């Protein structure tokens, strides 16, 4: 089962580390395995709200359309996007477990568009006065635990209030599904060529796929991806939800492209720092701090760390991912090793059609 919850707590320096797993058993487990629900006596208003939402969620899952899943049997259509059921439940729970603060900064992305890289860069930039490069938090813990996913169920709610500002959160939810108190905060969005996203996601999901399901062919992944049926998909609508918002509020959303960042990481990092309200000073530029952070967060450096070769990150109460799976090749254009000419053309046509008139041009590889 795919629980994408992550229970984290802050260490002395305000960095996130996994905390002892909550003893409360997952409600998902109950509703999937038994009925009626075991919780009958709400202990508080929050518990009552939680139980109500779980009922609503259960009803939704039974009624909304489903399609073939990548890791589990099904994905479910919810508000125009496709989700693993846990994310639907998490979305319903969001208002009771998360309260934003005006200084919060969010990292938003479609899965496999460069989230891990951006997490590292944002964390290292905001915390550059706390750590030396040679004794950096990222070297010990890797980027995954640097800050939490908003999309992760946190019930009973995790207390994030003590975290130093600006707090940072990552999310894969499309912009249109986020409440105004969150969308009024600053967002960094990273976008990537959908062909590379597809290949990266296919590898990742194949690895995480339930052993009860038959192997997941690239042909099937391709077909589903083109139809928009993949976790948080359709890819194009996801990207457009942030792209359009970035045009409306450029001071609130920094729209980044993975390919541009790969080509000029120092330029991207300087823009990122300025956007987050922590521009590099002339002295820092002089001392090469930008280059040092870029190097610290490079694919080569991060992927070779012990923690990223052997460690695991826990998402939720029972689901773990090996850190190494977040570091595969880190290249532009790996799709060329997998997609036929016809497949490439089909994705490019969809991209051109969907982005027509939006002003968004992806630095697609030919
Ligand atoms: P590939 O599978 O194409 O190699 P996400 O972090 O959103 O899950 O995305 C994972 C993708 O980003 C993977 O792409 C991974 O290798 C790549 N990646 C991870 N860390 C990176 C880094 N520091 N620099 C560039 N790419 C990175």
From TrEMBL:
Protein name, entry field: Sulfotransferase
Family of this protein: Belongs to the sulfotransferase 1 family.
GO molecular-function terms, A-Z: sulfotransferase activity
Domain Sulfotransferase intervals: 102-359
Keywords: Transferase
Transmembrane segments: none
ATP-binding listed as a keyword: no
InterPro entries for this protein: P-loop_NTPase, Sulfotransferase_dom
Native source organism of the sequence: Lactuca saligna (Willowleaf lettuce)
PANTHER family xref list: SULFOTRANSFERASE SULT (PTHR11783)
Domain of life: Eukaryota
EC number: 2.8.2.-
